[in-house]
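User: Can you predict the 3D structure for this chain?
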Amino acid sequence: CTCAMCFTLICAGEENWVDSRTVYIGHKEPPPGAEAYIPQRFPDNRIVSSKYTFWNFVPKNLFEQFRRIANFYFLIIFLVQLIIDTPTSPITSGLPLFFVITVTAIKQGYEDWLRHKADNSINQCPVHIIQHGKVVRKQSRKLRVGDVVRVKEDETFPCDLILLSSSRDDGTCFVTTASLDGESSHKTYYAVQDTKAFNTEEEVDTLHATIECEQPQPDLYKFVGRINIYLDRDEPIARPLGSENLLLRGATLKNTECIYAVAIYTGMETKMALNYQSKSQKRSAVEKSMNAYLIVYLCILISKALINTVLKYVWQADPNRDEPWYNEKTETERQRHILIRAFTDFLAFMVLFNYIIPVSMYVTVEMQKFLGSYFITWDDEMFDEELGEGALVNTSDLNEELGQVEYVFTDKTGTLTENNMEFIECCVDGHVYVPHAICNGQIMPGAASMDMIDSSPGPGGREHEELFFRALCLCHTVQVKEEETVDGIKRGIHQGKATSVYISSSPDEVALVEGMKRLGFTYLRLKDSHMEIQNRDDEIERFELLEVLNFDSVRRRMSVIVKSSTGEYYLFCKGADSAVFPRVISGKVEQVRARVEHNAVEGLRTLCVAYKKLSPAEYEEVCHQLSSAKLALQDREKKLAEAYDSIERDFILLGATAVEDRLQDKAADTIESLHKAGMKVWVLTGDKMETAAATCYASKLFRRNTQILELTTKRTEEQNLHDVLFDLSRTVLRQHGSMTRETLSGLSNEYHDYGLIIDGATLSAVLKPSQEGSGGNYKEIFLEICRNCSAVLCCRMAPLQKAQIVKLIKASKEHPITLAIGDGANDVSMILEAHVGIGIMGKEGRQAARNSDYAIPKFKHLKKMLLVHGHYYYIRISELVQYFFYKNVCFIFPQFLYQFFCGFSQQPLYDTAYLTLYNISFTSLPILLYSLMEQHINMDILKRDPSLYRDIAKNSLLRWPIFIYWTFLGVFDAVVFFFGAFFLFDNTTFTSNGQMFGNWTFGTLVFTVLVFTVTLKLALDTHYWTWINHFVIWGSLLFYIIFSLLWGGIIWPFLNYQRMYYVFMQMLSSGPAWLSIILLVVVSLLPDVVKKVLCRALWPTTTERIQVSPPISVFLCSEFTIINGFSSRVTSCRCLEHFCHLIQPHF
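Assistant: Here is the predicted structure, written as structure tokens:
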């Protein structure tokens, strides 16, 4: 009793809880007098990832849509047209606005309905709860904190649970946490010591206990609590609880028949839910540019309206010019105050010039994004035969952002790698052994023999060789599963032999044990603390497992102490070369070291193996050291580390192993291409540092000459964080500052390529706001170090930390465009945080794919998605945006100039039909087709030369100088249209009967020149011609002519619209009008043509050089061959790919 009290006081003293919760197991009150029973309210187990509800969808969606400047502006214009008498109809603004709002609402509503559907499938899945000694089935959402839950093998944990008991005798269970931290290996969790014997529902129901623990927090690897178990005695027994007792929601039970556990965190308080990032509306850089341009044009519009209003009243100040005698003002108009009249006129001018801001641009952009996204889903090269699926587009709003990416944040396990460890070779005393392909228990055909590269060792060496194989068969934490169920069929016998499947918390341990199996030594089982192995002579050898010195990231090694059947004590150790070599006193160190370095350069994961024999007295001393360290309640970890350090010494080196975490196909090539395209690639993983670093070398993220900088817990323990950061900063900035032109151009060998490795604990320290004034700059120093590193690896990351890293880079002063890619639920937070989120349809469920903006089958498909699709999307939409503003300046500026010639009377230059149909019919289809089909460079060249991606980086085609050029080009063309027509027809008769042109004929002439000029301007910008381009461009011009004849009553006499009757025909009957149209179109297009020719000749970009190169790419099939109506996609002609590589080396 006294011991329990002391323990409770120590626990309470060690933990400084700001806030804690008490959980009553099975909702049972504590015994009278034990402690006050205070029931607490906790949320239910419902998970919510949706954005809208049935009730708030309409108001919330409308509010979000009208936050867009354009939508709000068009709403105001529509209301103005309804309220006052304006030159144009309200339908011209209202109809396109209604269309945009409706289409967007339907799209967003459908996406949210899919999220609701996914939530319901999770919330309604059945769980089994123990009530009054019986199993009761409930829906997951009805689970409450304190409920005792039964979970069977292969079921997923419905909430965060504390393990009470397991069907395994030792009270352990095995769990995969793939959907949480990306690791698909099996991890071991432990039941509470005093409850592990409860194996039936009745026994579990007799448990009387409470759990005190911290309030929910998102760190997956941290948990602090204690359980108070009430027996017949007055005082409860207190036992500490840690992360080894906590089963997290989303993890899956493996290799354990069933467990009983108590719910402590439910619903949105589970660690998985706390690591979710809230889904927010993402906006692309192009959309932000559009909004900025919109504000500029809005200012131009207000200026025009203001100038015209002022000039109108200046002009009317003269009584002779006020109103003609036949248009006397009514008495009510005369009585109105001048300010009200002026404001009404100002609004009328606003409506008249309103067309400078194109509502149809937003409709066209929505259509372009929606239709353009199908080109990703239709791409055969992004289809995976194994999965039977291609790429998916969940959000089409961000297509062009794929062409602007500067930072790529990628998960490791399952994204860069296949999460399949493969044993490559082992080296014993300098002799190298390479078995054939072994991978996760699957033996490939023809793998029966052993390939020994070097000559076999002599008799003395053979003993060492067998000792090495035994060491690897014994020094691990692998579990053996005798039967494995596949598709509901148990396979226990295979070709007359019992088959076994190895499972472990470390996949490379499995690979090593399987490698030994192929080399003649098979690990059979651990039974009654005895490990059994089968040697080459098919004899069973038994070793008693006495102690396991577990692996940790600081020591970077693990050891076991075993006793052989002959009574000898062995200590076998395996670990990283840097952790083993300094502790070796004999063995062929140099030969093994050379092989280890060779394999490390190849990107393989290497481990060294050593041993020493222990006398019985030495073993007794080791036991004493370990037991005293394990019983310590304070500084237990420190004392264990000291004990391990003194035990693991004076080894004899046996050899080394090499294991490969097989990279996904073309992962290294993809990362190399992204680097060449100017992107920085960061790897964010929950995995161990050594594993992640090996993968980074294999995937060419780190190169041979990369100098690795470490910002890890191990280093910050030796030196404080402040000093480490400033040391690293000096290192990279000294190099950066001393870079000369030669080093930058690669002529000097002194230039260092830096790679940074940081772990989760250190990152938390860097990001944590410091109380000291000097500590606030850690974040900036860290960012400065990262900017000067070509690659960064962040290991041991919690899901929310991944999102914090992405957010940190997003918020840095350059505001770069970020992309996050991953395959598990642990990647969802960073996928939602990044500008563009890409999910991989991996083995770890579909959470990432479902929450992403785009989903692809494999990492290699990212290359084409960015370098080809992203490039095309950005080129297309940037032209679309600039062209729309240009053609609307051409359209409305003549209307502004016309007011100077009509007494500022708000008289339209163009007919109402032309005003309405200009953006909707006459000029909309050519730019829509251009924005869907344009390929300024062949796709094969874009894939071969990633540096072309740099030409469009940092929103280069939508910068202010280019925008101003397009605007001035529009103003110039508008002046040419208006004054060209005005001066050519001044004081002249043009028709055969001597009639003069009226104002509608003049307006129609200007409009005709306008439509032909803007359409031909687009034709000049088109590089990729298909019959559908020809059809749409020339068809639009033909449609304009036919419509004008129809509207003028020529084709359809019944439609004799009064003011336009016969106007178009009268204009076409005049020879000078024809000459004017041709002359003015040529003069308008000439400056742009001259500018392009000069720029291409004097200052060509990389893209333009390729465009004027010999047209080798003509031989290649295009991405899109247009047939049968719209488009049918065919992939590039592979038969010419090799030929193109040979004759286009400069690409």
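Residues 585 and 650 are 5 Å apart (CA to CA). The radius of gyration is 37 Å.
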